[in-house]
Structure formats: structure tokens, C-alpha cells
Specification:
By secondary structure, this protein is of the alpha/beta class. It has a single domain (2-140), classed as Glutaredoxin (3-Layer(aba) Sandwich), CATH 3.40.30. The chain is built from 4 helices and 7 strands; from the N terminus they run E-H-E-H-E-H-E-E-E-H-E. The protein has helices at 12-28, 51-61, 74-79, 115-124, and strands at residues 2-7, 34-39, 67-69, 83-84, 86-90, 96-100, 139-140.
Length: 143
Amino acid sequence: MLVVVFSANGCPTAKSCEDRLIALRESYGSRSLQLVAVNSNNPYLSPPDTFAQMTLRTTQKGFNFPYLKDETGALARAYGATRTPYILLFDGDRRLRYRGRLDDARDPSRVTRHDLQRAVDDVLAGRPVEVPETEAFGCPIVW
């Protein structure tokens, strides 16, 4: 399984998800879950999103997954990502099984629905994903 998260250093919503993504990767890593974060923001329009700042963020937060730069935004455009965070879940055959938000709240203490985790559990159990698409919320990706 592969989770792709379109993220950004300067987006408060994306930043609020980082610890939850680290925990998800830690919890499900032994069950073949891979996770990668992708930053598609134009660093000239969003200075916190330079590769140097991304590298610093990775170290400061202790990411247990790669954080990659989509220099042209082509990857985000190809998958229809317009906000950060925007999440895609692919099964072992790399079929898209879920797209949308991590969960239903920016503040971890207010989360009532763990959308990505539920989708991961469905895929692991061999079930159809109950809710295969949700609406992502957060900051717009800056082209």
C-alpha cells in the first residue's frame, strides 16, 4: 500500500497533520504501508516551501517517510490535488482506493472520523473502501 500526501511547510492545516502521519506510518509500516509526502508549492511564491526548508522540516519533525519536491507541480495537477494536505491511497496493485482528507478536523483533539485510517483498514481487510473520496480542506497549492 502507498499513501501519497500533498503537503506544504507553510500551511497550518498540513502542519497539524504531520504528527498523525508519522503515527500512521509507524502503526501500519509493519503491515506494508509506505507513505511519501510531496510538496508542489512554488517556492518563489511560498518561501517556506523551498527544498532547503523542506529538508529542515523533515529533520525537525523526525519524518519517518520521504518528503519530495514536485518542482513543476505536474504531479499535483495529474492527481487533481489543489489543497494541502491532499491524500491518495493506492493498494498493493497501485490502484487508487481513496482520495481526500486525512480526517475531519485540523485540531487533533476534535477529530471524530479518521478517514484515511478507515480506508487503510478497509484495504488491508480486502474490503471495498467504505468512503472512497472525501473533500480535502486546507491551504491551496500555490502554482
